[in-house]
Each structure stands twice: as structure tokens, then as C-alpha cells.
Design goal:
about 325 residues; alpha/beta; Leucine-rich repeat, LRR (right-handed beta-alpha superhelix); 2 domains; 8 helices
Length: about 325
Amino acid sequence: MGTFGVGSFANDEALNWIDSFLWKRSFASLSKEVQKFLKKQAHPAKVQAVLEVVAGLHGHPVEDFPAELLPWTAKNAKKLESELIESSLKAVTVLRHSSLADLWPDEESKSEWLLGIDDLERRLSSEKKELQKFPRLKRPGGFAPILISKGGGAQIGVYPEETLPDLSRLPNELGTWIRFRLDFLLGDEERSLIGSWLGTYPDLPLVKIQTREEDKGEVPPDALRHFKDLRRLDLDIESSIDFGRLQEFSKLLELSISEVSDPDILTFCRSLNLENLRINAKNLNLQPLLEMSQLRTLKFVDPFEASGGIQLNGTEEIQSHVRTLIQKE
């Protein structure tokens, strides 16, 4: 579960940030993330993606720069101020020696990542170059990937007024993972159509369902009902919806919880046949985990740890660790 590759956009932290930035693109957002990182309050993998956007605005986008951001980048490049370049260069220096440097499984991967950081620094330090004005990409099969990364796959967004993607027309070179981000601002009829469509592709690696804090009041409480046939699901939902609908997800095998508004969400997962669970959320009621004896793996994500968190394997290890966590509460 999850995505992690050497490229700047080949990991979950970068994908999530790019996905959010596509909706509220601003220099203030870029500057805020860089400053948070310099104060050690942001994940290094996320800020690497932020710095790539700054480099793109500077006229030197990386080869796998998100296609959907190119038109905005070209249009707004003239607004880039030297202060952001200077703080970004400081962030590159910190990034090179951050916990991200210790995550790689072998020296070859680490060396490749460091070469990428050197290249990022070189592009930020180069003389500013004017970007051509990129036309909006034509969408084969009714869609275009938001991101095709060196990590071996693509993230695809389904947004209002978009044609639903046809996976049968995906080019083979997209790689081994495809992650969809479904926007909850879609109408109820559109969500129903998407849910039915996704049901015809049960082996999708991961379907991400995400809302934002500002979406509260605009998301129907029963919106999850459209997606009950999914096998792999990533929830990043800050809005108030009915998580009780998860009890209807009888086919669900893998669940990733990034951010949710209900601390008792795991209560609704007890009756499911979940095999893999990934938790990147605080203040959840963990007691229901003791009743989920079918779990094979449980990962508690900590983005500020070099290891990325703790992964537990097997019923005995999972339940022992969960009991310890509950006793500490």
C-alpha cells in the first residue's frame, strides 16, 4: 500500500500535496510549505515536490513535472519573487540531509535520489528562463493523468464536467499503479455513475476518496454508498459523512486512513475482511483493532520518522502492539 519512488513526485506525500495544490494554486501556499519545512514542520518528501514547482516557475521544470500544472506555471512564472527562490535553495540544503536521505533501501537508490537533489539545486540556481505557454493537454479516452511519475504509475483525477476514464485505453507505459482521486464536489448522480464504473475494475491498485475542510456542508452524509464494491480504498475525508456505510464494503481488502473526521471509524471496519490497514491519522479509537483478527499487516504512518512509521505483521504482533498503545492512552 502506498507509493514511494526516487522521483520528486513518486510518493504519497508529494501526490497528496500536488492534488491539493491543483485546487488552490498560489504563491502563498508554496512559500508557506517551504517555511514550514525550514522550521521542521513539514514532511521532506512533500517539500521536494513544492521545490519542484518553484523550479518550474523559475523556468526549469523537471522531466516528470505534473502536466496539469504546466499551464498555470507558464502563466504565473513572472510573479515569482527572488525571496521564494532564496528560501527554496535553503530548503534544498536542509532536504539533502533530512530523514528522507535515510529511507532508501540501498545505496543505488540513495545515490539516484541525491543526483535528483543536485539537479533540483542546479535548476533553482540557474538563470531564470521563460516558459512557453503550454496548451491544455488533449485527453485520450476522455482523461489525462494528473501525474505520470518515475515511480512507475499515474495518479488520475476525476473532477466535475470530466469524461469518465476508460481504463481499457490506458497506454501500457503508465506502469504498475494507478490511483484515482474522486472529488466529492461532484453531484450525486455523477458519484453514482463513477461508483458503478469503478465496480467494473475491481483490481484497481488504490482508489482515493478525499474532501477538504472547506467542503463541509457540501458533501452528502451518505456519499460513500456509491463505492461499496471497491477492494482497495484510501480515505482522506475531513467532512462530516456517515462512515457507518463502510460496513457495506464487503469486498474491501485494503484500507488506508489518512485523515477522517470520525475518531470511531474503525468501529465500522470490524465486520469487514480487511487484510491490510494503513493509519496516518491521530486520536483514533484503536479498541476495534483487537477484534480484527483477519488483519495480515497494520502500518501506523509517522511521516516525521526516517522509517516512515511502524509496520506490524501477523495477528499476534498486531494485537500485542495495539494493546500497548491502548494502555498508554
